[in-house]
């Protein structure tokens, strides 16, 4: 079992002891998604894959929040915000814009990327370093502006 998955299991046990129904529900949702992936793909998840799954779940919550707010359903948006906060507790500390820019610059130097045709190669180099620590949509925009300019 990966260290991150064990941390999530321990959080479930702690939420059960504390009788924290909201946190317990979200943690069970996370564990169910991890288990689904393991069963579907017949693999044991490592920390990188667990992190990618958590990152995907947090992105889904952010998208839902914006859609619920546009529809005027603040009650549902608040519920999604609470879920997002629980998911964030398992993600590493987010990087600052300066740190992201430094990683992009280092990747450009190491890959020799010079134009938009090198975007895929550059993103493949950057993604493992930033997974769960930065919004990849924002990173993609920064990479595009770096390669264009």
Count of alpha and pi helical runs: 7
- Strand residue content: under 5%
Shape: globular
Helical coverage, percent range: over 70%
For the largest beta-sheet, the strand count, sense and barrel status come to: none
Number of strands: 0
Give me the Rg, rounded: 18 Å
Low-confidence stretches: none
Query: What value does the average pLDDT take?
Result: 92
The termini sit apart by: 44 Å
What structural class do the secondary elements suggest?
mainly alpha
What can you see in these coordinates?
- Helix content is 78%, strand content 0%.
- It has 149 residues and is mainly alpha-helical.
- The longest helix is centred in the middle third of the chain and has 24 residues, at 47-70.
- The model has no long low-confidence stretch (mean pLDDT 92).
């Amino acid at each position: 079992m990966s260290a991150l998955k064990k941390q999530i299991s321990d959080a479930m046990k702690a939420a059960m002891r504390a009788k924290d129904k909201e946190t317990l529900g979200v943690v069970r949702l996370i564990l169910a998604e991890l288990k689904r992936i393991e069963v579907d793909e017949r693999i044991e998840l490592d920390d990188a894959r667990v992190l990618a799954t958590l990152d995907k779940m947090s992105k889904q919550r952010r998208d839902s929040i914006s859609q619920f707010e546009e529809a005027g359903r603040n009650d549902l948006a608040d519920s999604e915000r609470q879920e997002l906060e629980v998911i964030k507790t398992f993600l590493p500390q987010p990087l600052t814009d300066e740190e992201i820019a430094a990683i992009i610059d280092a990747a450009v130097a190491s890959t020799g990327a010079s134009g938009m045709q090198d975007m895929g190669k550059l993103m493949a180099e950057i993604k493992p370093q930033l997974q769960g620590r930065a919004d990849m949509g924002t990173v993609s925009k920064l990479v595009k502006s770096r390669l264009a300019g």
